[in-house]
Amino acid sequence: MQSKAAVLWGPHTPWSVEETELDAPRFGEVRVKLAASGLCHSDDHFVKGDIPCGYPIIGGHEGAGVVEEVGPGVKRIKEGDAVVLAFMPACGHCRWCASGKSMLCDYGAIIMDGLPISDQQPRVHARGEGLRQVSMLGTFAPYVVVNEDSCVKVDDDTPLEYAALVGCGVTTGYGAAVKQAKVEPGDTVVVVGTGGVGSSAVQGARIAGAEVIVAVDPFEYRREQAKVVGATHAVASMAEATPLVTELTRGVMADKTILTASLMTGDMLMPLMLLTRKGGRACLTSTANPNITNADVVLADVIFSQKEIVGNVYGGCNPHADIPRILSLYRRGLLKLDELVSKTYALEQVNEGYDDLLNGRIMRGLISYS
């Protein structure tokens, strides 16, 4: 079928909206008509070359919509089902899925390749070339053909435009606080970087019962929005956070720190760990260039203060179990999704959306296909 998509033809080039030809779903695949796609900062890393991938590639890995066509061999999904697309598919039978760690599914080794699970042959074509799809999704397109292992069935009355955000950023941030940092009632928490992921970490900390939540972001708009979703204090840098947290905790420092800056560099670790109390835990949620092999840290501080450093993929969440739970929090008014969306764009405005995102004018943008 004929469609369109925002395509990245190579690094350091803008997104180009192209007319595309979309193949029918093959074995184990479905075609989904999307309601919306989130504008996640991670897709800009493909533009900058921070994250290696193949080109040309359709951007976008946050989406939700309705299944329009089902290919042969599909068992869990039927036409008409409402689904959220998970940026990390779950095979269900590798060691990690079988032990309840589907966010570490072996499919993770191939998602950045951007080609279908079953045969690594592109399903979308433009200018006579096959196109890859970010996370094997490519949600910068109103229609996608994806494997059923990437689809999480949700209630039919789910507000799908906002549910798109749960496919990556919201789940990653919420889980960073609740599952990886393990925020507890009464904790003091510092969240560094309050875009879509960081603001969701703020919410996770609030829902988990944190008493003090310090949001750190260089952009004033995001600092103010972080307060809307649960931050009790907001400052522009970790340097500013240090005397504030010292005062608030009488020198104990934060129980949990969460780094959700879009791209982590080696010089960020030391100030984060110095904000973390003895016996505290720091959760690293940012992406990082794989070529970076060194980070600054006071080893004696980490060792003899018995501090913990933990990584984070998908918030430590199992998408098929946790995405419905997170949407339930939204329905009950505990998790704010509407407030995360600062502006809605047409697909043709994708470059404008990223300009707004990178310059701190929005917390999260949404491409609407309605």
Would you kindly provide a written description of the structure presented here, covering whatever features stand out?
This protein is α/β, with parallel strands linked by helices and 370 residues long. The chain has 2 domains: 2-167 and 337-368, Quinone Oxidoreductase, Chain A, domain 1 (Alpha-Beta Complex); 173-313, NAD(P)-binding Rossmann-like Domain (Rossmann fold), CATH 3.40.50. The chain has helices spanning 41-48, 95-98, 160-163, 169-180, 196-208, 220-228, 238-248, 269-274, 299-304, 319-331, 350-358, and strands spanning 2-8, 16-22, 29-39, 57-58, 63-70, 82-85, 124-126, 129-133, 143-147, 151-154, 188-192, 212-216, 233-235, 254-259, 276-284, 308-310, 341-345, 364-368. The strands form 3 sheets. Strands 3, 5, 6, 9, 10, 17 and 18 form a 7-stranded mixed beta sheet that branches. Strands 13-12-11-14-15-16 form a 6-stranded parallel beta sheet, with helices on both faces. Helix 4 packs parallel to helix 5. It starts with a strand and ends with a strand. The model has no long low-confidence stretch (mean pLDDT 96). It is an enzyme of class 1 (oxidoreductase).
